[in-house]
Amino acid sequence: MIRLKRMFTGMVIATTSLISINAAIASDYPPHTINMVAPAGAGGGWDLTIRTVAKTLKDTGLVESNMPVVNRPGGGGAVNLSYMQTQTGKGDLISVYSPPILLTNLTGLTQYSYKDTTPLARLITDYAAFVVPENSKYKTIKDVMDALKEDPKSVKIGGTSAAGSMDHIQFLLVAKAAGVENLRNIDYVSFQNGSLIAQALGGHVDLISTGLGDVAGLVQSGKLHALAQTADKRIGTGLIGEIPTVKEQGIDVIFENWRGLFGPKDMPEEAVAYWHDALQKMVATPEWKAALKRNGWDDAYQDEKAFTEFLGDTNTQYKTLIKSVFGR
Amino acid sequence: MDILNSLMDGFSVALQPYYLFLILVGGILGTVIGMLPGLGPATGVAILLPMTFSMGPTASLITMMGVYIGAMFGGSRSSILINTPGDGAALAATFDGYPMAMKGRAESALAISAIASLIGGTIAAILMTLMAEPVAGLAIKFGPAEYCLLMVAALSMTVSMSKGNMLKGFLSMCIGLAISTVGIDGQSGLQRFTFGVLELQTGIDFLVVIIGIYALGEVFKSFSTLGEGGKKAQTKFKKIWISKDDWKRSKWPILRSAPVGFIIGALPGAGGTMASLMCYNNEKQLSKNKEEFGHGAIEGLAAPESANNAASIGAMIPMLSLGVPGSGTTAVMMGALLMLGIQPGPLLFAQHPDTAWGLIASMFVANVILAVVNLPLAGVLVRLLAIPPKILYPIVLSLAFVGCFAISASVVDFYILIILGVAGVLMARVDIPTSPMILAAIVGGQMEQSFRQGYRISNQDLGVFMDSGIAQGLLAVTVLSVLLPLIKAIRSKTTTKPA
């Protein structure tokens, strides 16, 4: 047993040193094991993203360390965010996050923000989609906005996340850009039990604010009608490609549900450089491109510098909105 | 006969030796995962997900189906043997399953559980083949108002049925409702009763409540008797089978519960827990041997077992025909489908008939295989009861903590677990029933949320809760479930008075 263990350690040392030689970097990064964390349970968007990243990196041989996927759910990602504070300065933890990392902080659910992490790269993005039942009286997103200007209570907006989180905010961003006042008076209804799309199919809510990827199949089958999406250009093919952007309809705003990778705060420089390299190479591989296509994701790669800047801008944008709507 | 032909094509896929093997392996894995408290089918399928990627869509889905149905079979094993449900859907199996085991009838309990699961699952698979479309249509008719009334009906049934004092049942329910309010409130986005603890923002998982009250409660209760040797371990075991009389009593409850379970399972977000609890209450209401319920009535085990397997198959409907995952497990499966390049939803049957019908056929096959595997397996498992309590209980204790950790990976839940365990003992001491509390903890959150959803959508008009036919029907059930026991009580008083 002991001999086996020693052999194993030897092998590990041998492989890691081999990698360093291959990469022509004389350092001890990457470590043998890098924990890839989904700050939510299995099966959701974060989980899918981090698993796809880990699998692609492994399959393409870009990272040879073990990359077990760890699910650390709770508090809409806040539990993992506070765990990451105990890992400050370490390099063996990579976590995936999306706009909620900004929103949970801005609405006061957690004291930590993206500033308490090391942003590594933005990878992909989905967009918001505003969807109505087949026989809805609203034909365009302008119709909806006009109705809301008339009476903010006239259109009931459904979403999955809690009030003040993503599905709510993305709609309000568009409403604000369309010139709707009294944003606080718009009724937002949260369906957290997973019945949102069924509620739309049954016509129980007037409009649902959700992700383009979540409704793609139903829009394609014609059971739901998408009024608008929030990309800066049309996305996809077929009926999805026919969904107009809000910009086309004269509402000057885009909303991206990006997903990116983050390390703990003060991640060592060599680790940041290593991930800069690995991820930049990964997004160019055919394996990654196939995964994007399969999942209906849009490539949104930004390296750590551009991503950090993007986060700063977006944070300010959300901050203004949340302050005006919730007064927090 | 289009459906029949397609189904036959499906069988020609599912019955290939390779797929049979996958169902068998998946089923056994699922049974083991299902037995462990806290690890339910969702976790099981998620763990297996990466392994199935290289297999191709059909093989991958069929394996997941095996795990899923296996977990439904396995979930109730631990309910019966150690009073610790493997997951929410197996909760109702503790009510009469554990008392049966305590009375030395564990063999019959395990056997009826497998048989009821087989029959319930098969009936549901037949219904699924024939009626997937209309049931999906019914499921989307459920708006917030209907969801709310469904929860109210379920709660009022449990409270009015609770043994003895109705006031105590009501009190127990209130504790459960209080537990269900912890966390971030969806409609306002504000925190309630989180006391600044991050882990509490997502609320208290009802599985933690179940494990705390049942598993820990059971162990803590034994402390008072352990010194005197405690209860005797069982040493002799009979064959895993049921008697003719058992079958006669269980037959109708099994057949009745399957369609009910199937339909409740098809409602997104309702699921096996609700289905099995409602069917348990139905049977208690209908039974001639009401007083036996809770003390080891075999039909009280047969009904929920049939219902939860039927519900697990019903839960596939929203995913397959609407493209909407109706439960945690189907959400994971849907993610897997997407990763494999298949878009579930209305177009699935047209675009990938092999996969879709192969999956449906595999539900039939998996049910049969699991029943065949589970009967001999039960013969081994039942020997758990031969372990003396002083050894068994520490095992239960550690399983409870491991299971609790598996749910949310949070240490905070340990404290909650211990508090609930103590609460379980205290409630037993003063004779407060625990099932209203558990049910309230499960449905309370959704009941409140759907009430507020409906109220907000209708612009604060309560009429929405009486508008649709479904709503009126559910209201009638609620009123009846409260009134019937009352009327009976009054009648028995007036008839006994003159005597």
Notes on the protein architecture:
The complex is a heterodimer of chains A (328) and B (499). Chain A has helices spanning 2-23, 45-59, 78-84, 100-106, 141-150, 166-177, 196-201, 212-221, 238-241, 269-282, 286-295, 304-326, and strands at residues 35-38, 69-71, 93-97, 117-133, 157-159, 188-190, 207-211, 224-229, 256-264, 298-302. With 328 residues, chain A is α/β, with parallel strands linked by helices. In chain A, strands 1, 2, 3, 4, 5, 6, 7, 8, 9 and 10 form a 10-stranded mixed sheet that branches. Chain B has one domain (2-231, 239-496). Chain B has 20 helices and 2 strands. Chain B has helices at residues 2-14, 17-35, 41-52, 57-82, 92-102, 106-141, 144-161, 166-180, 206-226, 244-266, 271-286, 298-314, 316-322, 328-339, 348-351, 353-381, 389-408, 412-429, 435-457, 469-496, and strands at 183-184, 191-192. The mean pLDDT of chain B is 85. Chains A and B meet through helix 2, helix 3, helix 7 and helix 8 of A and helix 3, helix 6, helix 14 and helix 19 of B.
CATH class of the largest domain in chain A: Alpha Beta
Distance between the termini of chain B: 64 Å
Low-confidence segments of chain B, given as residue ranges, are none
The assembly state of the depicted protein chains is heterodimer
Q: Averaged pLDDT of chain B, please? A: 85
